[in-house]
Amino acid sequence: MTILLIVLPIVAGSLLFLAPSGDKVLSKVVGCAVAAVTFFEAIFARGGGDFTVRWLSRPFTAAFHFNTDGISFWIVLLLALCTFCAVLACNVPRTRNFIALLLLLEGAMMGVFTAKDLLAFALFWDLMLLPVFFALAGWGERRDTAWRYLIYNFAGGLALLLATAAFGMAYGSTDVIGQAAHPLAGTWAPWIFAGFAFAFLVKTPVWPLHTWMPATYADTPSPMVAVVSAVQSKAGLYGFIAIALPFASASMHDASAFFIVLGSISLLYGAFAALAQTDAKRIVAYSSLSHLGLILIAIFSFNAIALQGALVYIIAHGLFSAALFLVIGYVEEREESRSLARLGGLGKANPRLAGAFTIAALAALGLPGLAGFAGEIVILTGVVQAGNIWPALVALVAIVVAAAYMLRLLQGAINGPQVADLPVRRDLTLLEGLAMAPLLAALVAIGVNPHLLTSALAMVTK
Amino acid sequence: MHHGMGVDGYYPLLYVIWLLPLLGAVACWAFGPQLKRTAGALGSATIGASFVATLLSWGAATQSAGGALGAHAHLFSWMPGWNFGLLLDPLSLLWVLIITGVGFLIHVYSIGYMYTDRAIARFFAYMNFFVFAMLTLVLSDNFVGLLVGWGLVGLASYFLIGFWFHKPSAVAAARKAFVINVVGDVAIMFAIFIMFSRIGSISFGDVFAHVDRLGSLLFLVCLCLFVGAAAKSAQIPLHTWLPDAMEGPTPVSALIHAATMVTAGVYLVARCWPLWNASPDAQMLVGTIGGLTALVGAILGIAQWDIKRILAYSTMSQIGYMIMGVGAGAYAAGVAHFFTHAFFKALLFLGSGIIIHELGDEQDVRRMGGLMKKLPFAFWCMLAGVLAISGIPGFSGFFSKDAVIYGMLQHGHPWLYAVGILTAGITAYYMFRLFFVTFLGEYRGTVATSAPGAGHAGPGGRPAHAPGWLMAVPVGILAVFATIAGYVLIGGGASPWSRFFAQTFPPESLPRPAIGEGLTTVIALVVVLCGIGIAYLRYATKEALANAPARLARESARMPAPLVHLFYFDDAIEWLFVRPAQLLGEIFGRFFDPRVIDGAVQETAVSSQWLGALVRSAQTGLVRAYVLIVVFGAACFIAYYALAGGVR
Fold it and tell me: Partner of B124 at 20 to 30 A CA spacing, among A55, B101, B477, B542?
């Protein structure tokens, strides 16, 4: 079953290029159908469907080994949901090509998050960059953004590949993810960890490796950036949890202060930078920098509660950032702008759009009762329990700033008097609403009781 | 007798009390276009039903079952130590009764007040949601549940302050209120982190049973909790959002920004009395801040001209009394002032709402005057409210305010005692100033008023025809309670009030202070009468009334600068926090990112420009070509490794 999660979107996405390019409806129907089937597969894939094909036996053993267990399951589910919503919401020119790229992206990321072999992980890691690169090149406003995205992330990918090879040489096998094993030892262990960490930090991203991200998020069409910020940005954090924690915990402990400082800087830097942006997508991009810094702190606090909170927040951030980017896409389609200097007063003619925007923004600013809050409070409880008082205080300051920039974004778009020279368009269509509804419903459900997610991780971490 | 209670004090009716208002909110929100004005009836009915269910639970809430006081209901558990449940004990019972009881009256009033507003269904959805959130706050049996309610009432407040979201001033006021309240939220979060790391539980029962484990961190926990309380309850220096919050419709001001939400801080301190009782330093801090807030709010109340802003500063000041009371250890007295204040302040706001409604949204008292003849019903109701807040014997405020003031002396805070008495005088002055300027003399405005309750032209220019009784009856009922509510305090230690809270708060055996209770009452009364006298001389003598327009204009022109600038609290927050944050954002986002970090990256990239030239030539612009290249490349890659692996 697990392998279908990867193969189906990639095959379907590749075949979609053969469809007539003018037929938007066909592309969208096919795209939705594939995404929906993948989503149901993902639901039923939990813990089952181990797929292994032996690959290398020398110089180390490697296999195409995929499984959907533990934390992988929840991220796979998030990915399938976000892709489905993105395809449903998609309304960009050259629809066929765009939906095909979305499906390819989904398939490649499925590979990353279900790979149980480090080499397969590294392979899909590089593969998942390409659909985004093509989307940036084909639909973005500035070509250098695409190259910056690719060069930054390929640099990370290269480090990952080298580290994987070294890991294989040192350990004898790369078919190791999710298996009870002894940690990596030897003089090379810290360097191997450093290679992984560099790739993970670039991908997340974490300050000061983040400068590719705001431009990328601003230039990528909204449905794709929804998936990228929701899921692709979690690849690095997932790597820290699933790869680094079991095999390099000694190196992680040694370097924990360094990473906690980077996480804290990201938290504050992102929050304050978001305060000064006028492009709606850049506000969300910098808020991502801030929020993901918190998860980094959680991971490097080596505390069971913080780790459970990190999983909740990984899912929560995926849901609210996807929802925010989708809704900003809707705003941009209606007003032909996403600059706060131009927008305003949308709520009067578009109450449904305003409602969806409000819930997404409230989840992002950590409103109690929604998923973002559940993640934040559980993480910080663990962080304080682990004795990291200062990072917790930094996070609390960032939460206050988050309220300021999120409300600035929300109110700037939907409140105030209607702007005279902006077009007045109709409210959310049924399809657009359907694309938002599952994300918002999940934000409420997880916010009320995240126990389902935390219990899943409690099983994984014993 | 177990009053319909299940085993172990498990009490299912709590779910009904808690969730009915949410049901109303969802219905009003989902079916707003269909419901239109019946949304008001639906919203009021759910609140009323919740009130009745609470009354039915009185017995269960006030008896001990299995050693624990009150009725319980379990919800769910996030993880070990994080159990969520509901608790109705005498303290939460009092709050729930006020929230649903006074809330019901204000809901009914709102049907009339909001009659002409097109968004009336949205209004009731928000109002019902607020009641649900406030019930979550006071019914939770743990700190995280309380914090969830704490945040959600802030959200409801945000929605309702910004209800008329086309007004930039309303939008800004809503954001300010929200952000300042988030400061309070994160402070409470930090307290929770410390408590959990020391005690391993979030439930009130566990924490209060192990206060000793907090050790030297106890004061820090109290401090953090109090920052939360101060933000919500408008204590200095976090009070600046409350006057701005008057941008919301007047029933909102009455329910959220007077009777219930802003008293959440009082609830929190009273609920956590085991923490405060164990930390005299924290008691000193909270009592002092409360006293200062009472004084500052009253002084600022002198200088306002907007009828709702006068009431807003008086709310701030009165909550200062409550915080002073519960902070210094006079828990029952502080909570009693919440009880009476809920009635008389809701009465004052709804009464002023009638005036604002009749005068076509006029809120400046300088353009009122002579309303005694035009609006006799509002006159009598406001008179009851003004007498109650001023502490005139026989009216409710007299009993509770005296209890707080005397409590300061009993608990050894003579300075707070003096502040309480002084503030009572100032309160009497500015409230009678409001009363004289509004109701006496000649009418100074331009709006032609009609009979009370006949309605006025709505914002849309359409005539309104809400039945007058919808607004009049709730105000009349509140006037009655604003008068008599204090009688439950008669009898000192044997009063119904003391018996109600006998098992809730710690028993007090305090030394008799030098100044007795009777003498305190006399001193306070003399000061109050002085305040009224000064107000009379300045605003109500024949000469003052004859030259009212000129005198009022001169007074506003000569207003001292510190009062005009509200003691510079807003400016201080702007310059100390808001501007630096924005500046930091500009530096990070517009300078540091593009120049410093990217600059360094580009330095290294220059050396690899040939790479750029190479890839530029490969850019044919056709996505299909790219995809083919990628697929081909990936296939080669896989094939190579597959073969290589197989060969070896």
Answer: B477
Residue pLDDT, tens place only, B94-106:
999 999 999 999 9
Residue B626: pLDDT over 60: no
Record: contact B593-A211, CB cut-off 8 A? yes
Give which of B467, B511, B296, B487 is closest to B396, Cα–Cα.
B487
Q: Is the pLDDT of residue B424 over 60?
A: yes
B220 at A interface, C-beta within 8 A: no
Residues 6+ apart with CB under 8 A from B570: B240
Q: Could you give the angle at the alpha carbon of A80 between the alpha carbons of A77 and A86, nearest 5°?
A: 135
Closest C-alpha to B252, from B315, B333, B296, B195: B315
Confidence (pTM): 0.91
Distance CA(B234)–CA(B177), nearest Å, equals 10
Where b means 16+ CB within 10 Å and e means fewer, B120-135 reads bbbbbbbbbbbbbbbb
- Here the tokens at position B369 are 């005057």
Q: What is the average pLDDT score of chain B?
A: 86
Q: Which residue of B lies nearest to A391 if distances are taken between CA atoms?
A: B190
B162 touches chain A (CB under 8 A): yes
Q: How many CB pairs under 8 A join A and B?
A: 173
B591 contact A CB<8A: no
Confirm if B190 and B224 have CB atoms less than 8 A apart.
Answer: yes
Q: Give every residue of chain A whose pLDDT is below 70, as ranges.
A: 47-48, 180, 455-462
How far apart are the C-alpha atoms of A163 and B375, rounded to whole Å? 83
Instruction: State whether residue B137 sits within 8 Å of chain A by CB.
Output: no
- Determine phi and psi for B188, rounding to 5 degrees: -65, -40
The per-residue pLDDT for A360 is 95
Q: Among B55, B47, B165, B153, which residue's Cα sits nearest to residue B109? A: B47
From first CA to last CA, the distance across chain B in angstroms is 83
Cβ atoms of B340 and B482 within 8 Å: the answer is yes
CB A71 within 8 A of CB A142: no
Which residue from B minimizes the CA distance to A359?
B155
Query: What's the pLDDT at B449?
Result: 53
Question: What is the rounded CA–CA span in Å between residue A154 and residue B531?
Answer: 76
Q: Are A100 and A17 in contact (CB under 8 A)?
A: yes
What number is the ipTM of this complex?
0.93
> Going by C-beta distance under 8 Å and a sequence separation of 6 or more, which residues neighbour residue A385?
A303, A305, A306, B193, B196, B197
